């Protein structure tokens, strides 16, 4: 038998992806460095479809129909290069290597270039949805050549998640690293979403005085409205969970130090390189890093803060409504920033990414899936050249309606000493964008003073410098 697709790397992701292909009627060649994984996959799940187990790289490649489609699901970084080096010499021009790992897009660009010279299509592909998504339908973000998408697209469409309207959550994102870039920003937005939800939770607990179980109910209610999303849904699950051993709310027995694997950090690093302000995503990454500084936090516990005072019952309910407004408005801002980064990456690398199509494929399967993404898609469909999500009439109106509550929530947070870096950064971004004048004019003056860096004037073209150390007259540069 010849297999239409092959998967090498059969840990949780690869094994589930292989099963997904098989369950959809494809013959799947499977391979793993450690042969026992291949064997156990076929033993446990062989009945789900047609698998061809390959022990060696040669067997694996020989099992594939041509042009070959070879999915690599191994640890990102060096292992991916090692696997490519193992397989590339066995392939022929026109064959495809699909890297479904969490690769850095710069690595993907390099690998694509090197393999293109050898006639092999390299398809760097973002895959989101975790283990369950890989099995039941992930959101898939493939980059690479148009030809490779023509060959692969129909298969990916079949195994991908479907949005509520039935559309497959996969699109050809763009050439070389475009798919992994978009996956990276997806993860950055995911960090921001999680941070904002965390701040909402902390406010409901510390300012409104609700218990985790009550807060779970509030999130359940929010999940029936415009915040309807996977992350809000699982937040309610986590908050209502009670630890069996101690009888305490689960959230109170978990060490409050958040970990990270790096894609959020990459999103911020690349945003800095591209000059895109992603302050909300950056605050989310910093909040995780701050939480992990145990010694620093221990040393700071004695620092003084305001006296806490919880709200009364009726005030608490009204406050919860305000927090919903603040969360929603902040979410609009973090997506605005994330899409700005994708637009900037697309511009820098000539990817021609369709932002509406990206929001459409995030509607299902991935971690940030949400009703909200349908509205982002609608915004880009209505105006493909939209300079920013905040320029969309609907989002602008919603923020306008939310802003009083948003500001009140931040006042309460500040007064009570509850850290809300995500909400605050989002509001600062919004206020900075709409400000008629920014203190950047003063910054320019300072730069000109100490470094003769020059400035532009509001009333005349050209660059100018003031002779600060002399008679303070202005010279044209
Ligand atoms: P891991 O990232 O834990 O990687 C384990 C797999 O990589 C095993 O099959 C292992 O083979 C193989 N491997 C490691 N080093 C080498 C090497 N030098 N040569 C050959 N094979 C090697 O597995 P996951 O399934 O968690 O993830 C796979 C990829 O998918 C990663 O890039 C990950 O970032 C990405 N991803 C993961 C998600 C998740 O939710 N887990 C979600 C989305 C993407 P062996 O069995 O022989 O050790």
Strand-and-helix sequence, N→C?
EHEHEHEHEHEHEHHHHHHHHHHHHHHEE
The whole-number mean of residue pLDDT values reads: 97
Sheet with most strands: strand arrangement: 3-2-1-4-5-6-7
Q: Main beta sheet, described?
A: 7 strands, mixed
Outline the low-pLDDT stretches: none
Rg for CA atoms? 25 Å
| Shape descriptor | globular
Task: Please tally the β strands and state the result.
Answer: 9
**Distance separating the two termini:** 74 Å
Helix content bin: 55-70%
Number of helices: 20
Beta percentage is 5-15%
**What bound compounds does this protein have?**
NADPH dihydro-nicotinamide-adenine-dinucleotide phosphate
Global structural class: alpha/beta
GO molecular function: NADP binding; phosphogluconate dehydrogenase (decarboxylating) activity
Catalytic activity: 6-phospho-D-gluconate + NADP(+) = D-ribulose 5-phosphate + CO2 + NADPH
Function: Catalyzes the oxidative decarboxylation of 6-phosphogluconate to ribulose 5-phosphate and CO(2), with concomitant reduction of NADP to NADPH.
Binding site for NADP(+): 9-14, 32-34, 74-76, 102
List the defining traits of the structure above.
Pgluconate_DH, two-stranded antiparallel ribbon, 477 residues, oxidoreductase, alpha/beta, 6-phosphogluconate dehydrogenase, decarboxylating, binds NADPH dihydro-nicotinamide-adenine-dinucleotide phosphate, 20 helices, 7-stranded mixed beta sheet, NADP binding
């Amino acid at each position: 038998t010849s297999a239409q697709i092959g998967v090498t790397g059969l840990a949780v992701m690869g094994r589930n992806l292989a099963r997904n292909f098989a369950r959809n009627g494809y013959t799947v060649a499977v391979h793993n460095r450690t042969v026992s994984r291949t064997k156990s996959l076929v033993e446990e799940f062989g009945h789900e479809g047609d698998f061809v187990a390959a022990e060696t790289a040669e067997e694996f490649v020989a099992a594939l129909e041509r042009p070959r489609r070879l999915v690599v699901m191994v640890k990102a970084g060096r292992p991916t290069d090692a696997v490519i080096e193992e397989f590339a010499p066995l392939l022929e021009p026109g064959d495809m290597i699909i890297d479904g790992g969490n690769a850095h897009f710069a690595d993907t660009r390099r690998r694509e270039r090197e393999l293109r010279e050898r006639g092999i299509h390299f398809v760097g592909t973002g895959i989101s949805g975790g283990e369950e998504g890989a099995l039941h339908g992930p959101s898939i973000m493939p980059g690479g050549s148009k030809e490779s998408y023509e060959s692969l697209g129909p298969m990916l469409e079949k195994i991908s998640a479907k949005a509520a309207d039935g559309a497959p959550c996969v699109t050809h994102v763009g050439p070389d690293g475009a798919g992994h870039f978009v996956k990276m920003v997806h993860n950055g937005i995911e960090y921001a979403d999680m941070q904002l939800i965390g701040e909402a939770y902390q406010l409901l607990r510390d300012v409104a005085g609700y218990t985790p179980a009550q807060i779970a109910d509030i999130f359940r209610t929010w999940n029936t409205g415009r915040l309807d999303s996977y992350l809000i849904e699982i937040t309610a699950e986590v908050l209502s969970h009670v630890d069996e051993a101690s009888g305490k709310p689960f959230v109170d027995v978990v060490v409050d130090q958040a970990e990270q694997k790096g894609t959020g950090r990459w999103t911020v690093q690349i945003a800095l390189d591209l000059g895109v302000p992603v302050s909300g995503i950056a605050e989310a990454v910093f909040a995780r890093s701050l939480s992990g500084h145990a010694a620093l936090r221990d040393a700071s516990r004695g620092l003084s803060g305001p006296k806490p005072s919880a709200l009364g019952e009726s005030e608490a309910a009204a406050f919860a409504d305000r927090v919903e407004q603040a969360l929603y408005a902040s979410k609009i801002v973090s997506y605005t920033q994330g899409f700005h980064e994708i637009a900037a990456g697309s511009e820098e690398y000539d990817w021609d990414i369709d932002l509406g199509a990206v929001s459409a494929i995030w509607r299902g399967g991935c971690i940030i899936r949400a009703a909200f993404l349908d509205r982002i898609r609608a915004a880009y469909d209505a105006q493909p050249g939209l300079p920013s999500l905040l320029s969309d009439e609907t989002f602008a109106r919603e923020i306008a309606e939310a802003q009083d509550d948003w500001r009140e929530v931040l006042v309460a947070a500040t007064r009570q000493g509850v850290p809300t870096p995500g909400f605050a950064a989002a509001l600062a971004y919004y206020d900075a964008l709409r400000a008629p004048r920014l203190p950047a004019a003063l910054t320019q003056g300072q730069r000109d003073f100490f470094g003769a860096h020059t400035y532009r004037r509001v009333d005349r073209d050209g660059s100018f410098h003031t002779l600060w150390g002399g008679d303070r007259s202005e010279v044209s540069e």
